[in-house]
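tl;dr need the bound structure. longer version: we got a ligand (zinc ion) that a collaborator sent over and nobodys looked at where it sits. i said id run it. heres the input, straight from their email, havent touched it
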Amino acid sequence: MTALPATLVDYPAGATASTGVVVHVEPLPDGRSAVVLDRTAFHPVDTAWPDQPADRGTLRVADAAPAEIVEAVVGATQGGELLLGRAVPVRTGTEGWTFVVAHVVEADGISVGDEVDIDVDADHRAALSRGHTACHLASLALDAALASAWRKEAPTDALGAPAFDALAIQESRILSDGSHDLYRIGKSLRRKGFDPAALDDPAALAAAVDERLAAWIAAGSDIRIERDGEALADRRTWVCTLPEGEVRIPCGGTHATSLAELGAVTTAFAVTAVDGGIELVMTTTAHPTDA
Ligand SMILES: [Zn+2]
């Protein structure tokens, strides 16, 4: 196989439709095909940190009927074999690798050189974007609410609070208008100075987080994505100005363009004892007014 170009992505700028040229078609063992384009508006699920699910939508060649994109994953190659999804052994952006968006379709008859239109389900995208923005805000509000639980100096988050979210996160899943974040508080977090007694009252924690979220959303700030380039693996940064200051978080996902789109954001917490520590689940929900 000849070297593939890195896929250029249009979704960071909010696009839900794009036109691209097929640069590779990988037949899959199950009979489906993974179609790689020179550029796409379709957000794939990331392999190394699969927080935001793939978009929904279709791929259409010229006058053919649109084919549903049943899955979209990150693919990577060092010039030889194209590895897809979980088979990719490196983080997106790793030096020496080229990263592409692989659109998986049932349709055959798609060939290199074909021009295709991508059409993303815009309502689904918007709901995921609100969910992802709510997730970032809630993690910052959680860090702030837990700041007094640290007995030692700890690494800090984008707002300067001890970085509970970054230090304890195990898994983050973006949902339509919300997210689930799973944290683990074990020996290593306690050794870093975190006092788990701060999690004894989940309802009080939710009230403290929600109060901060309400103040932030009332400010209604704009959100933007800054990027170093158009390629899938180019670094992108979520930028939002909160009353406390400008927040910058590395992020490859899609987002609301204003905090006003979220309507309101609320959280709920569940604490479970597990072997060697406790698990905390934060469920975040956005309540958009006109969605
Ligand atoms: Zn993110």
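gonna send this back to them w/ a short note. The two ends are 45 Å apart (CA to CA).
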